[in-house]
Amino acid sequence: GDKNRSISKYLIKKAYKNTDKVISKKAEDFWNKHELWCEKDYEYKYKNTDEPSDEQLLKEIIIGVTDFTLGNRFINGKSVLKDPTIAIKYFKEESKKGDRKAEASYELGVIYFEENSVQNYSESKKWIKKAYESTEIEISKKAEDYWNKHKLWKY
């Protein structure tokens, strides 16, 4: 049931942190194949240990880390296991108050269109439109191309 998938999520995260690269890679593949980021966190972990989360660790490792960088790492699984829901959180923060608002909006549009676990075409349309309307010409062009390629006006 749900509890077993939560335990699975917890154990795969532990395996991913293993120094053996083969084990780490297998854990990452399993994580991505089964989209374990969708599962609830295993509660036992938080009641009986004080292990920092992946988010806390990244914030400590990367001095002056931006919301955009964190979002990028979580969507691409760089130094952490892929997690579109956490990536969305950071890209939304960046789109509100960061230096890379337009780029974050574009990334959100792409995630909402392409990631099955969080797919929402109307959200994708909203964010791509926001990126297109930005003053950043390069991002605006990318957004326009994405809009046309995926026919976002339909949503």
TrEMBL record:
InterPro entries: Sel1-like, TPR-like_helical_dom_sf. It comes from marine metagenome. This is Uncharacterized protein. Gene3D superfamilies: Tetratricopeptide repeat domain.
